[in-house]
Amino acid sequence: MKSKTLAVPAVALGTWAWGDSGEPGDGYFGSELSESGLREVVEKAHSNGFTLWDTAVAYGMGRSETVLAQALKGYDRSEYQLSTKFTPQIAGDGDDPVADMLEESLDRLSTDYVDLFWIHNPADVARWTPSLIPLLTSGKIKHVGVSNHNLEEIALADQILGEAGFRVEAVQNHYSLLYRSSERAGVLDYCREHDVPFFAYMVLEQGALTGRYGPTNPLPEGSSRAAVYNGVLPRLRALTDRMKAIGEDRNASAADVATAWAIAKGTTPIVGVTKAAYIDGLVRARGIELTTKEIAELEALADASGVDTRGWWEQEM
């Protein structure tokens, strides 16, 4: 039974940092999270029409899913969309690791279906993709996406699903001003041509593109973010200064401009939200229309920085 087309919001909400253990070295983001604070995030998001939540087993080994379910308690299941992932690298050794991991996610998320289920990393497309078909047929997953896949892998997954009357309905890759490999490799064009929504994660580069951090105000000590970005913050100065200036003309921040850039490129940014105030930024970003000249200028400054933010988990596109 094919379900209706995936409803794609202007911005999706990321909960990678919701899996934060609070312990340096263990998926540590250095974000102060509390149950009441995250509940406030949910309430503000929903009252502004942001209702697609993106999580994964791999985010804190289930912590993010558990915390998200807690924060959504009391909302009717029809009021929000859940997006979670099967990560091959942590698959169990049962007969059907995909179904097993989904069951565990459903349990943690306190639901009997997910709106969008992703194969998180390619690993072995021919091996893992067929396992999605019975889950689609049963309705436990409504839509399927692939994350961190290159063009060839996306096409193969689509072909496998196509033989059963389904298709790849979304692509989720790392895409930001500093990391445009999906654009350069033709993945964005493919998605446009095939009418497949492209979800862009790490649009703010874990805070490095918000303009809030710099050599004098680095990312939180001991966090995984600090190790990756603090050394390159000086090289991002020209870019974040320009983003701030573009934002000032519109009563918006540099972070809002980074998000608006991703929207202008025809993608759905997934923005990590750990504070209710971040929702105000998403509302502003949704309303910003950057000019062609501004987009070109930001991309030129990003290229000139010479900063490559490809994650350790990512292949070349």
Automatic annotation (TrEMBL):
Annotated GO MF terms: oxidoreductase activity
EC number, as in UniProt: 1.1.1.-
Lineage top rank: taxon: Bacteria
Annotated Gene Ontology cellular component terms: cytosol
Domain named NADP-dependent oxidoreductase: residues: 11-302
Record key words, sorted: Oxidoreductase
Enzyme class: oxidoreductase
Record-linked InterPro entries: AKR, AKR_Detox_Biosynth, NAD(P)_OxRdtase_dom_sf, NADP_OxRdtase_dom
Entry-linked Pfam families: Aldo_ket_red
Record SUPFAM superfamilies: NAD(P)-linked oxidoreductase
Signal peptide stretch: none
Keyword Oxidoreductase among record annotations: yes
Name of the protein described by the UniProt record: L-glyceraldehyde 3-phosphate reductase
Organism (species): Actinomadura rubteroloni
